[in-house]
Each structure stands twice: as C-alpha cells, then as structure tokens.
Amino acid sequence: KTTLVSMLAGTECISNGVVRDLSGLKDGMAQWTVGCSISVLAARVDGKDVMVELWDVGGSRHYAHIRSTFYDGIDGVLLVYDVANQKSYHSLSGWLFELCCRSDPPSSLYWSDKGGVDMEGGLGT
C-alpha cells in the first residue's frame, strides 16, 4: 500500500471538522487542534489502495514556531476555510506564505466548509 501524507491548514475547528467528515464521523462537536492531530484514512485512488495520513496542524500563533517541523515530507496540503468567515479565507495567504518560506511547496488544494452558511442560501443563525 502507498501512504500519502497530507497536512490540513487553516481555520481552527474547521480543519478538524474536515477530518471528521472524511472519516464518516457525524456525532459530537469539532474541537480546536493543539499542536498536531494525526488521522489515517483508507482510500482507493486510480484502482490502488492508499493510506492517507492527515496531519491537522493547529493554527494558534502560540505554536507557530514549531509548525515547520510538520512541513518536511508532506505530499500535499488541504487549505481549509469557513465560507461564512472572510477572515478565515484571508488567513490562507499567511499559511501559503509560511509553507513556501519554510519548505518545498507541496501540491495544494483549497477546501471550503459551509460553516455557518445555510444551504438554502443564507447565513445560519
């Protein structure tokens, strides 16, 4: 089996929710990540079984100095933001800058989460 290592970066709590969604977990509340939380998911890509390690790296400025430890050896980055929160979208440029300054930039994928947006077309209450 092939193992891909991907890092989740972006808005706190949203990236944790992405891991829960990909894992099929729907119960409970997503929580902020402190440091790094690692999840392993099985996937099938182009007919091959693949193990995907998702490294959910906390976005707190308090831990910014140790985040670069997680950048080496990653195969991709999922940049996560809340579409109902413009600040979370704009913070992605900081994550990209940090990634490019501290490592060889891996492939990137943007992921938005509906967050507080009602799927019927308005903001949730």
Automatic annotation (TrEMBL):
<protein>
    <submittedName>
        <fullName>Uncharacterized protein</fullName>
    </submittedName>
</protein>
<dbReference type="GO" id="GO:0005770">
    <property type="term" value="C:late endosome"/>
</dbReference>
<dbReference type="GO" id="GO:0045335">
    <property type="term" value="C:phagocytic vesicle"/>
</dbReference>
<dbReference type="GO" id="GO:0005525">
    <property type="term" value="F:GTP binding"/>
</dbReference>
<dbReference type="GO" id="GO:0090385">
    <property type="term" value="P:phagosome-lysosome fusion"/>
</dbReference>
<keyword id="KW-0342">GTP-binding</keyword>
<keyword id="KW-0547">Nucleotide-binding</keyword>
<dbReference type="GO" id="GO:0003924">
    <property type="term" value="F:GTPase activity"/>
</dbReference>
<dbReference type="InterPro" id="IPR027417">
    <property type="entry name" value="P-loop_NTPase"/>
</dbReference>
<comment type="similarity">
    <text>Belongs to the small GTPase superfamily. Rab family.</text>
</comment>
<dbReference type="InterPro" id="IPR001806">
    <property type="entry name" value="Small_GTPase"/>
</dbReference>
<dbReference type="Pfam" id="PF00071">
    <property type="entry name" value="Ras"/>
</dbReference>
<dbReference type="GO" id="GO:0005764">
    <property type="term" value="C:lysosome"/>
</dbReference>
